[in-house]
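This part of the workshop introduces the protein records we will be handling. To make this concrete, we reproduce a full record directly below:
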Amino acid sequence: MRPPEPLSSCFFELAKHLGAGSLEDYAYDLMDASDFLEALDPPADLLTASKEDLVAYKDWGREHRDDPEMDATWMRRRGRAFR
């Protein structure tokens, strides 16, 4: 099953430049962000997310997860999902 747009196009472009391991890391990071944004009320996606949505994603990932993210993990996720 293909991921929905805009993830499908994003992965297609990334696959041209990344190895399988890096592409897998990007996939987990981007799909995690996408799932979080879709659960918001009202739902958002990577293209329509506001600054407040991104701050909420950061707070959730760093403080409210069962296994909170460290600074390095957040920096990697931020760089991949929100370029």
Notes: The chain has a mean pLDDT of 83. The radius of gyration is 13 Å.
